[in-house]
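=== RUN LOG ===
request id: a7f3
mode: sequence -> structure
chains: 1
length: 164
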Amino acid sequence: MNVNIYRIILILSIILVLFGVIFNFSSQNGEKSGKLSKQITIAITKNIKYIQNLDSKEKEQVLRKVEHIVRKTAHFSIYALLGLLLMSLMKTYKLKEIKRIGISFIMGAVYAISDEIHQSFVPGRGPMVQDVLIDSLGVIFGILICIAICKIIKMIKGKRKENN
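=== RESULT ===
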């Protein structure tokens, strides 16, 4: 595939899809966001007998803790995907690996910061330094996944060349 087409696909995926999804989630007011998290938490825990057999007060406490984990895992995961895509885009440029990593990380972290600032303007929401840290760790994880995948692909291609 032509490198320019690949770049365009990655850029559109990053801007239109990921930034759009993140912006949309961050635009939800506190009530709507909380309701979505609660629905996901209930769906995840509905078949866990231990939780379902708790009395209502204990069950509510456990569900609140699980919901917190669900929310933070969502932050981490979507930013890991962002890190993966940013690093994939940087791999299309002839740069030293450390520069690719740095640019990908800075872009992801800056977007995480801007996302938290955006949330300060949404009713019932607010910026959290903890979320920026979780998002940034997600970006790093995505970058590392991209590097690992590229090394595996390179190793497979090298073995194919040896066998031919």
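=== NOTES ===
The chain has one domain: 3-163.
The longest helix spans residues 56-90.
=== END ===
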